[in-house]
Amino acid sequence: MLKKPLNLTIALTFFMHLSTAVHAEDKPVMLFDFSKPAVASEWKTVNDNVMGGVSDGRVGVTENTLQFYGTLSLENNGGFASARSPAARIDLSKYDGLVFRVRGDGRDYYLNVRVPTEQVAFSYRASFKTEHGKWMEVKMPFADLQPTSFGRIVENGEAFNPGNVESLGFLLADKKAGPFKLEIAWIKGSPKAEKAAPVRP
Fold it and tell me: Could you please report the per-residue DSSP string of 110-161?
């Protein structure tokens, strides 16, 4: 039986390890693991009662998830409920988006990202759909996030800066009064894809 030349064997081994390393770097990185109760218990709600509304949004902790639930009301010009992480510097500059595992009720929710700013009621957000009772992984590129204030898109607003984040969260504002429930298992960062080096002739 012919043996492979030593230098060829070493080269193949090197490229196999390189491929494994690149693949590992491409895997999403855990940011919030709600199977740990201490992580989920730090989240809080901010609802339309800060503006006179009467929506009742709450967060609860189960064995493996964070639950965002309650009742949305359109009374008193209200109509939103939100859950958010504690205010803290979150550097997402290594990622080009987020991936999160959720189980919803068929309603449309927003990923809501807040940044340090003097603008009132300002955040970056993007909507995603849920299917009633079905677990799903949602991939949200940062390029989809739009600057908003009081729920309206800010025209000519600054592009989202992932290195300057204050909190992450979820928002319901679909103008449909009634009960809602969104379960979140985890949130991960999606690493930026490495650009291949140009091939020289």
Answer: EEEEE-S-SSTTEEEEEEEE--BT-EEEEEEEGGG-EEEETTEE-TTPPPP-
Helix (H, G, I), strand (E, B) or coil at 16: helix
Reading the block at residue 27, the tokens are: 């895997």
Which pLDDT band, with edges at 50, 70 and 90, does 63 fall under? confident
Q: How far is 68 from 159, CA to CA, in rounded Å?
A: 28
What mean pLDDT comes out for the span 88-111?
A: 97
- Report percent pLDDT > 90 for the chain: 76
CA pair distance 100, 65, nearest whole angstrom: 12
What is the reported pLDDT for 36? Answer: 92
66-72 vs 178-191, strand pairing mode: antiparallel
Compute the distance between CA of residue 147 and CA of residue 115 in angstroms, rounded to an integer.
10
Q: Which residues pair with 62 in a beta bridge?
A: none
pLDDT of res. 20:
41
- How far apart CA 104 and CA 182 sit, in angstroms, is 5
Smallest Cα–Cα separation from 189: which of 100, 101, 98?
98
Burial class (CB in 10 A: 0-12, 13-18, 19+), 121: exposed
